[in-house]
Structures are given as C-alpha cells and as structure tokens.
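Help! Submission page says 'invalid entity' but I think these are all valid:
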Amino acid sequence: MADVTLSDIRKSYGAVMTVHGVDLDIKDGEFVVLVGPSGCGKSTLLRMIAGLETITGGTLNIGGSVVNDLDPKDRDIAMVFQSYALYPHMTVATNMGFSLEHRGASKAVIAERVNWAAGILGLTSLLDRYPRQLSGGQRQRVAMGRAIVRNPQVFLFDEPLSNLDAKLRVVMRGEIKALHQKLKTTTIYVTHDQVEAMTMADRIVVLNGGRVEQIGAPLDLYDRPANQFVAGFIGSPSMNFLEGKITEAGFQTSGGVLPLPKLINSEMGQTAVYGIRPEHFRLSDHPSHASVPAEIVLIEPMGPETQVTMKFGETQVTGVFRERINGAPGEVIHVSPEVGSIHLFSEDGDTRLN
Amino acid sequence: MRADISPRAKVALYGVMCVLLIPFVFPTWWMVTSSIKPISDIFAFPPQLVPQSYDWTTYSKVFELQPFVRQYWNSAYIAAVVTVGTMIISSMAGYAFARIRFPYANAIFMIVLLGLLIPSEVTIVPLFQMFLKAGMVNTHWPLILVPIFGAPSVFATFVMRQFFVTLPAELEEAARVDGLGRFKIFTRIALPLAKPALASVAIFTFLHSWNLFLEPIVFLSSAEMFTLPQALTQYTDAYGGPMWNIQLAAATLTALPVLIVFIIAQKQFVEGLAHTGLKG
C-alpha cells in the first residue's frame, strides 16, 4: 500500500498534447476513480502510472519514490485490463501465479498465494481451467486474482467492467468494492461510466480534454459541481441546462421566469446557465408564482418513478417524479424547481455562480 | 453448406467429386503400381491399371544402385535443420517487425519482402560463385543456408509477422506488469500463442526443403551428398535412359513419409495452409 502523487503530469504525442498537467494526491488505501468521456486522457493517465506509457513531463511518485523512469515491473503495481488480458495458453492457476513464478517465488509460496486469492474470489474450483473455458465474470475475477496475488502497492483498473453485461457489471462492481474494503490497497480505477464512479469511489477525478475538471467525493461532485461539464457528466439522466438572464424577478428564460437561489456571485442582467437535476423538479397542482408551465413531450413510466420529457419554452428538459403522471403529450403541467438544488454557471460554463 | 441438399443433388455432387478426384489420385496410383511392374508392363497397351505381374526386386535395386539410405538421411536432416532454423529466424524477425518500434521498420520490412519477388533461378549463379569461394560447393551448407536466410524464410517471416500483429497488445502489457522483459515476453507469451502459425511455417518449410531440386543439382556433385529429388534422376541405364520401375519405386519411397505425415496430420495440414493464406 502506498500514496500516489502526480505533479504536473503531462503527455504529448509529437506536437499533440493529450494530458495537460495533472496534479493529484492519492492517499494510502484510497479508491480513486478517473472518469470522463472517451478521449479525455483517463486511460493514458492510468497507463502512465502503470509505466506502459512514457511520461512527457511532471513527476510521478509512488510510495515516496519518483518512478517516472522505472519499468512497470519495478513500480510494484498490478493492473486489470479491459480485455482481462489473461494468457490463453495458461490455466487459471498458472495465470495467477505467473508473476510470482517470474519473480523467483518458490512453488509452495506460489501455491499458497494462488489458493489465498482464489479463495477470496471464489475461483478455487476453476484453478485448472483455461481462460477460454470461463465466463466473462469468471475471467474478470481471474484478472483480479492475478492482480492481488502478489500484494502490490497499487491496483490499477482500466475499464474492467465494460465487457460485461449490465447485470454482471453491477455484481462485479460490488465485488471490486468489497475486495478493496478487505485488502485496503490503494486503487486507481478508470471508467467512462459515471454510475460506476459514483458507487465505487472514495474520490472521483473528472477529466475532460486532458485536464482535471474537478476532484471530490462522489456526492460533493453531484451536489456542487464546479462547472457545467461536471454538472452534465455526473448524474443520470443528466442535469438540465437553460440559458437566460439573471433579473430581480428570477432567472429569465425563453419559457418564463425561474426562481433563483439567494446567494449568487453575479450581477443583475448577467447572462448565465441555469442547471437543475431531473429529480429536483416538483409537480404543482395549480399554477403559482414558484411554478412554471411545461408541455409534456414524452412520459416514460419506470415503476418507482416516472421520467417526463417536457418542453419549457424552446428548451426540452427532463424531469423525474415519484408520482405517477396521467398526462398525454401536448398537455401542460406545472412544475417548480427546488430552489436549494439549483446550480448556476457562467455563460461559458466554466465557473459556478452559487 | 446447405443441410437440406436433395438426394439427387447429393449423388450429382459426389459424381463430380469422383471425376475431379481422378487427376489427383491417378498419378499416385500409377507411381505406386508401376513401381512393382516389370518395365515392359508399364508401357503395355492397353495400360494395366492393376498390375498383372509383380516385381518386388525394384525396391531392393533402389538401394543397390545408389547410397539411397544415405540420401534419405541427407534429405531428412537438411529438411529438419532448415525447418527448425526457419522457425527460429522467422518467428524472431516476424515478432520484431510486428511489435518492436524501430526506425524505418516498415521500409525495412518492404525491402525484405522484395526478396520474394526474385526467382531463385536469378540468384543461383551468384550464389554458386559465393559458395564456391567459401569452399562450400558439394557440401550441404548451401541447401541449409539459402532457405534459412532466403525467400522461404522471408515468406515465413511474413506469415509470423501477420500473426504477431493480431496478437492483443494488452497481453504483452500484462506480461510487462507481471515483470517480464521483451525476450521473455517473446518466449513465454508470444511464441506459445503462435503455435498455429509456427505449425504452418514448419509444414511448408519442410515440404519446400524436402522437394528442393534446382539447388541440389547446382551445388552437389557426388552421389553420397545427394538429396532425394536429385537422386531420383540418377536411376538410369547405361545409355542414360530412365529405369522407370526402379525410379518410380524410389519416388514412392520418397513420397512415403510426406504421405504418412499427411494422413496422420491431415487436419493440421489443412488448417496450417489456411493460416498462411496459401491455396493448396
């Protein structure tokens, strides 16, 4: 187990820079998730930590020593790949014990460690099988077994669940989290799935275009996104954004006036972006000064809740309600945003105004 | 293939296949049966598809007229050395071209591939002069060195490169994280996974060397050094005419090991050839 510190880590391929100076302090035993859209540099960052990509600039520190120029094998890390990367010509047991064997461990030690890891991951009965004889979830577990068997300082996961079906993904998500709670090894996990990030991380690092947008605990990011990108990326269905002007009466949009939170960092008349999460709309029985009329476009009953796509002025917004809604497309309902859950961003989306 | 093929179509299909079989099977049948016919029966008219009388002495004469065992051994060990050598060189070169980033890798690979475009007949004279200077004429060295470093190996390198290009990079990265260096990754991960490609390289290299004819007749001059394809031409009478039945007996013995291996490893042969993209 070790701290991992990234100081101004940069990566460029020729003249093209893909990671623009990332600073990140990961504490011993922490579970950090790097999340962002495709091409945001999250996998590149992980691969630089692993030693599979060279670091163009900055300093990478693992367990108190600078490892920029060390080979992956000398960094004492273990990595789980998206495709699992199990050696097809080796059995589960050989796959798991391979790195120990290569490092000169005795057969007894290898057997003990492999059995220990297999026990934790429920692989004991599969040790003699070959990867081709395993299901996706079992392969995933073997890949994790291979990582934990030599007790590395840091675990790196590169989108390990993206090849699994939705149901298995949820199961494995829980297993990885449980494994981390048991072993308490520093873990860096890359995903593009914000639900995975929210459910697993101690801290999330949101990346976009090779830059860190925000670092924080999952609910901090959810409740107080630092900018419009993070606000839109975290949460599903994603946050609604409405453009308009800040006025004395409220937030003036093409569809009407919306209520504003009390403390805002801006001047009257300023153009801004109003953010509201779908679950932060409330249904009103009657029109009131706090509610706005919205035309129903689509109603999607999910069971516990109902997702409604509405037209508010020229803008389409999504609302999620606990109530069951008996409306039809074209009908007008009255909804009011929860004032305490409103997010205001500058016109360019880079700054939070409240 | 469609499963619901009608019985009539099936009969027609098998009929066509039987007809197509004739040009492939007949020469072998003729070779084997003629090897045990007296020479006059080979040219009898109408032709005897099934021998009327047998003359097994042809097989003993094969060994009396030439050091056939020695020639057999020559062919076998040369083919074995060439096969193993080509497998080593082509797998390493193919891996390097597929996986190691070095300056002008693609340009160098193209230049290497150009070697395939030059017919062996073009290079045989300069090669003869080179080996003559090196004192290697009438030794087996040219038959070993030319295929290992020449066109057959280039083709093998191409096959191996194409295989290694398709090997997932993540497997090698996992091996790097597990602590392996480049050479260990090659020997422990890449090579064991390349067995199908290696098998096809082994098959066509062995066959190429076993059947090699032009090079032996250029480089070898004494019967003790001959390989089988060359030895077959030496079964002639006092006037230089071929002793057909003895020659065909020797040919049968020459084809035998390849035939046996083919019957045993038919599946691997077909898969191996499919792998190379060669048409059988």
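Support: the input was valid. A stray whitespace character was the problem, and the output above is from the cleaned input. Chain B is about 70% helix and 0% strand.
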